[in-house]
Amino acid sequence: MRSLTDALGGERRAWAIVLLASTLAISDADLATVGAVAGELERHLRISDTQVGLLATATALVGALATVPVGSLTDRVPRVPLLTISVLLWAAAMVVSALSLSYEMLLISRMALGVVTATAGPTIASLIGDLFPAAERAKVYGWIQAGELAGGAVGLVAGGAIAGLVSWRASFAMLAVPALALAWGL
Fold first, then answer.
1. What digits encode the pLDDT tens for the residues 73-122?
2. Against a cut of 0.85, is the pTM above it?
3. Residues whose CB falls within 8 Å of the CB of residue 28, separated by 6 or more in sequence, listed in order
4. What's the sign of the alpha-carbon dihedral 33, 38, 41, 47?
5. Which H or E run includes 15?
6. Scanning 20, 117, 154, 161, which has the fewest C-beta atoms within 10 Å of its C-beta?
């Protein structure tokens, strides 16, 4: 029976896939955490369901708007440093989210997060093209997409559990830890 590393094409290729999948996993975990801590946000910040929904919507919409110009930037600058800087900025935005003293501060930090997470899609797509032969890109993307989806699931469960045990702030702050580790690994 082949090991997972062998199935991914060796240690270096497996490491690249893990890093790229982890990037998208953290992004999805962060988005899912907003829903997981919604009740805590409502109580502590005295906000409505609509305002909680706006936090996730603003992150996604700002990210959608930023993706096209970021994609253009990805074509002009070295991709790995761009992704590394972006992940470091994600970590900072996650910490600011955790430290937010008001709904407005949290909303602005979430919008900033949308801008920097917009780097992931175009950069990862481009890196897949750079690092893997055309005949293997769909399989590689499948592994990376699996990581993204798993991140969303883990974000929902872990974010809710951490909020219940500690606080909603800890749920956001804890996401900065794997983001920093990821930036170091890139």
1. 999 999 999 999 999 999 999 999 999 999 999 999 999 999 999 999 99
2. yes
3. 148, 149, 151, 152, 155
4. positive
5. helix 11-36
6. 161
| Residue 16 to residue 140: CA distance in whole angstroms | 10
CA distance 95 to 97: 5
Chain-centroid distance of CA 9 in Å reads 25
User: Residues for the chain: how many in total?
Assistant: 186
Q: What is the DSSP letter of 9?
A: T
CA 166, CA 55: separation in Å to the nearest integer? 21
Tokens 């996650």, residue?
A: 94
With tokens 């603003």, the residue in question is 58
- Domains parsed from the chain with CATH numbers: 10-185 (1.20.1250.20)
- What's the pLDDT tens digit per position in 10-27? 788 989 999 999 999 999
Is 54 within 8 Å of 41 (Cβ atoms)? no
- With the CA atoms of 90, 98, 171 and 19 taken in that order, what torsion angle do they form, in degrees rounded to the nearest 10? 10
Q: What share of the chain is helix, strand, coil (3-state, %, to 5)?
A: 90, 0, 10
- Cβ atoms of 182 and 87 closer than 8 Å: yes
| pLDDT per position as a tens digit, 114-125 | 999 999 999 999
